[in-house]
Amino acid sequence: MNVKKIKTKDKIIKAAWKLFVKQGYEETTISEIIEVSQTSRGTFYHHFRGKEDLLFSLAYFFDNDYTIWEKTIDPYMNSLDILLSFDAYVLKNLENSPYRPFLSSLYGLQVMTSGTRHILDPSREYYKIIAGLMKEGIEKNEIESSLSYMELTESFAIIERGLTYDWCLNKGRYSLLQYGQRMMKIFLNSIRA
């Protein structure tokens, strides 16, 4: 994709999220997104199939934060302790996010979409971090499991998605961070060498 197309796509995404935050996802129309992004209807549909594709871009906003977190890792920590730290960072970000009101819609629409399920995209930074730490843990004999590092990565992600989905279903009535950390410790301790 060339630079001009990327800039146009980013312009549409930024306009959409500005409107989503200001007036809500349901209340925002594609026409308003086109107007605020100063693009055309054809350009919009060149980049996105519909408004829900813009909601799905939320996963990538969180990924930007994960690359920042990655720079704070203590290289001398055990990989399982780093994974628990990453879990805390992810769950805290979700719980305190200005995009929190959109998480239920994101999860609901991802279940129903026939298109790409972005929260499952293995090329996301989220998955790269987990996979890298799982692989490192196995190589350093910090992790003992009959599962491959990719299977362990998927297990970790399933736990976080399940917790987040339940938290959304319960309208955030409990601390995602506190409950999630308890559940993730059980999983990580089960594979600790």
Protein described:
With 193 residues, the protein is mainly alpha-helical. It folds into 2 domains: 3-50, Homeodomain-like (Arc Repressor Mutant, subunit A); 57-191, Tetracycline Repressor, domain 2 (Orthogonal Bundle). Helix content is 70%, strand content 0%. It is built from 10 helices and no strands. It is elongated.
Please specify the SSE layout and strand pairing.
Blueprint: H1 3-23, H2 30-37, H3 41-47, H4 51-56, H5 58-70, H6 79-96, H7 103-112, H8 125-139, H9 149-169, H10 176-191
Helix pairs in contact: 1-2, 6-8, 6-10, 8-9, 9-10
Provide keyphrases for this structure.
193 residues; mainly alpha; Arc Repressor Mutant, subunit A; Tetracycline Repressor, domain 2; 10 helices
**Terminal Cα span:** 44 Å
Report helical residue fraction.
55-70%
What's the CATH architecture of the largest domain? Orthogonal Bundle
Strand content: under 5%
Under CATH at level 1, the class of the largest domain stands as Mainly Alpha
The computed structural class is mainly alpha
CATH homologous superfamily grouping of the largest domain: Tetracycline Repressor, domain 2
Overall mean confidence score, pLDDT: 90
* CATH topology (fold) name of the largest domain: Tetracycline Repressor, domain 2
The tally of beta strands, per DSSP, is 0
Poorly predicted runs: none
